[in-house]
Fold this sequence. Notes:
There is one protein chain. By secondary structure, this protein is α+β, with helices and mostly antiparallel strands. Helix content is 28%, strand content 14%. It is built from six helices and five strands; from the N terminus they run βαααααββββα. A three-stranded antiparallel beta sheet has the order 1-2-5, with no helix packed on it. Strands 3-4 form a two-stranded antiparallel sheet. β3 (133-134) and β4 (137-138) form a beta hairpin. α3 crosses α4. The radius of gyration is 22 Å and the shape is elongated.
Amino acid sequence: xxxxxxxxxxxxxxxxxxxxxxxxxxxxxxxxxxxxxxxxxxxxxxxxxxxxxxxxxxxxxxxxxxxxxxxxxxxxxxxxxxxxxxxxxxxxxxxxxxxxxxxxxxxxxxxxxxxxxxxxxxxxxxxxxxxxxxxxxxxxxxxxxxxxxxxxxxxxxxxxxxxxxxxxxxxxxxxxxxxxxxxxxxxxxx
Length: 190
């Protein structure tokens, strides 16, 4: 187990001052004239890239929890309409704070949202000196180690989406650690 885990980062992309001028005062992708050009359009990400291609599990199940059930009852066009309705819902200055805080706003403009998720993050894992023995037999000293990961929210290959990169990075790291523990790889190979 690491003896120290630290994380630091910032939110530098999805802040209001970086909102494209062409988006004007729009606060939701479905009411935005810039949407066809926007890499982070909720319409593109959730409907065109996922739903329209037959994808109905995560993250769509988070947005519309009964999305699969609604198809069985009313068909795919109804389900698409429900998803569109949820994504196009928005709030304004007159919306009560309790209403705003009671739900997620998946179609909200990324630059207008209350997003607090870092888009550039550095995670450091540190292990102390690792002297080990097995049934009294001394094993090679692994020595202290530090692993540093820098995670960017977006890549050129996957604009507007993590594209599963966070999970792939952490799975690869976990697999490498496990391979060292089980003896399949040495530390240098992992």
